[in-house]
Each structure stands twice: as C-alpha cells, then as structure tokens.
Write a structure and sequence with these properties.
Blueprint: E1 2-3, H1 10-19, H2 21-28, H3 46-61, E2 68-72, H4 78-87, E3 90-95, H5 98-106, E4 115-118, E5 131-137, H6 146-156, E6 157-170, H7 176-189, E7 194-195, H8 198-208, E8 210-217, H9 219-222, H10 225-239, H11 241-248, H12 257-269, E9 273-282
Parallel strand pairs: 2-3, 2-5, 3-4, 5-6
Antiparallel strand pairs: 1-7, 6-9, 8-9
Helix pairs in contact: 1-2, 3-4, 6-8, 7-12, 10-11
Length: 290
C-alpha cells in the first residue's frame, strides 16, 4: 500500500472536484473517468470510450429493470442516468462534490431519474441489504479507512448481489524509485489517501463478506485516456486565456494536478500502476448470483 503524505480528507477531495468542475467537464465530458478501448485499432473519441467503461461495468453487474442500484462516487451522474434511462434501474448516486451534484440535478428531472446525494460514502445512510447491485468507478482510492468503505459496500447489498468496481492500483511488483517518483506523488497530488494492490483489494473484499468472482487488468485498454487529455488541455490553454490563468495561478491549489498527468502516463508505461476491475458477490444465506 502507498500512503499519501498529504491529508486527503473528504473535504479536500470535495474541494478538488468542486474547484476543477468546469475544467474537468470541458476535457472529459460527463463521464470523468478513464475511457475503455477495445484495442490499438479502436479510434473512438474519449467521450465514447468513457461511456464504454461505464457500459462494461453495468454489463458485469447484470442489472435488470427495476433493480435498486447504488452508484458510489457518481460524479456528474452520467453512469447513474445510463442505469436509470437505458436499463430501467432505480438508482441512488453519491458524490462528495456539491458542484458535480448540482450539474447532475440540472440535467436530470425525467421520471425515474437517479436520486443524487452529496454524502461521504462511509456515512451514506442507505438502508441495510436493499441494493441489487453496487457500482463504483474509480472512486474508492479517494476514500480513507478502506475496511469501513468495503464494509459499507457489503452492508447495503442484498445477499447474492453484485459489486463491480474499477480503481487505480499499485502494481504487485514494487520498485522503490517508482513508489518515490510516481505513485506517492500521484497520491499526494490526486487526493488519494492510499493506493492499494489488487491483492490487498481482494483481501478487503473477502474481509467484508464478498466472494471475488473476477479480476481484470484494464491498463492497456484505458491508458490512452491521458495522452488525449493532455492534447485537449494544451489546445484549450492555447485558445482560452481563462484556462491559461487557471493553470498558471500560483494561488490555485489544484493546478498541481497538471503535474500529475505526466506521472500517470509514466506510471502506466512502466507498469507501476494498473487499472483494476473487480466483480464480487455479497455472500449470505439468501439469493445467489444472477
């Protein structure tokens, strides 16, 4: 496990996403997470690829019409809306960011659209054992106290129901220089209190009462995201004086993230970091996998 040297409390994570709200949406669109491409020949734009990752997660969760689904770290609610509008699920999305939630509510309003809550996952207040599925796309690494985080994932699920999550992970084969030059600064700059390995997440899942059904390393299919984002950020900075001021303002605590992106590219290139996908089933007396 890599531990951040900076306090990454929920308020700091919320402030990060609130501060970068418009900037993130201009670069990514509504799905602020990695894109998923099928291979080197796939030239889909990042907006299609990011939706593709959400669709892949949803397919593995085996969502059926009427299912109660919790979208942890829902961001702008794009995955939540996809679940509700195209899969007929009853969705509750949670984010720490008031700015993200405000946007999600502003583009919602249709009958059956998701409920969006601004809430710390560790204090989510959702009822015990009512969710048919939980999805969590690239958000758990922002959360401290991982045993409690995973315990809450288990608590809200029905026995036999599925959890599908993706997250940033440290490679199992560690190198001190990669930890020092890449992973620890990524944690510091990206508001990640810790970065775990796939094996450590597997232990957390088992300890919380899950059976791990599947692990997949998506790194080679998602790493193209960052060069695309760099090109978009540079193009915007060239044409938009406000974007240049944002990046150059020494009083802006989030401009440090501009340094994180090259580190992320290097971390994927050197295999210091991987993007992991987990499919797990809540153990218990009732239900069973679908």
């Amino acid at each position: 496990m890599i531990t951040s040297r900076q306090p990454a409390v929920p308020a700091a994570v919320a402030a990060h996403y609130d501060g970068l709200d418009a900037y993130y949406r201009s670069l990514w669109g509504e799905h602020v997470h990695h894109g998923l491409w099928s291979g080197p020949a796939d030239r889909a734009p990042v907006e299609i690829a990011t939706r593709g990752l959400a669709e892949y997660v949803i397919a593995l969760a085996r969502i059926e019409p009427g299912d109660r689904v919790v979208d942890v770290g829902c961001g702008y609610g794009a995955t939540s809306r996809l679940l509700a509008r195209e899969h007929g699920a009853r969705v509750t999305g949670l984010t720490l960011s008031a700015a993200q939630a405000a946007y999600a509510v502003s583009v919602g309003g249709r009958p059956g659209d998701p409920e969006i809550l601004v809430r710390d996952w560790r204090e989510n207040g959702l009822p015990d054992g009512e969710a048919d599925a939980v999805v969590a796309i690239e958000c758990l690494s922002h959360m401290p106290d991982k045993p409690r985080v995973f315990a809450e994932l288990a608590r809200v699920l029905k026995p036999g129901a599925r959890l599908v999550l993706t997250d940033w992970l440290a490679c199992e084969q560690r190198r001190p220089w990669r930890d020092r030059a890449l992973l620890r600064p990524i944690c510091d700059e990206g508001r990640l209190p810790s970065m775990h390995t796939a094996a450590e997440y597997g232990e957390l899942l088992t300890g919380a009462g899950f059976e791990l059904l599947r692990f997949e390393d998506l790194s080679r299919r998602v790493s193209r995201t960052w060069p695309i984002i760099v090109r978009r950020a540079l193009a915007r900075a060239l044409r938009d004086p406000e974007a240049r001021r944002f990046l150059l303002d020494r009083g802006n605590p989030d401009r440090i993230f501009a340094l994180t992106v090259p580190r992320l590219m290097a971390a994927y290139a050197t295999r210091a970091m991987v993007q992991g996908l987990f499919v797990a089933q809540r153990t218990g007396a009732a239900g069973g996998g679908r």
